[in-house]
Here is the input.
Amino acid sequence: MADDPKFSEELKKMEYEPLSPVENKLIAWSLGVGVAALAFFYWLSKTFFPGGH
Here is the structure.
């Protein structure tokens, strides 16, 4: 057990790998969908439940 490498040491040994274009698109789409959902649900609550604001 004493010879097991530590997680932080393994992270330091790893090479940097940039994100692929597909990963960038997935991140952008998920952020866009999240912001759109927040805006939609805010509008929904403001329209149908005006007493709570």
About this structure: Helices lie at 7-13, 21-48. The two ends are 58 Å apart (CA to CA). The mean pLDDT is 89.
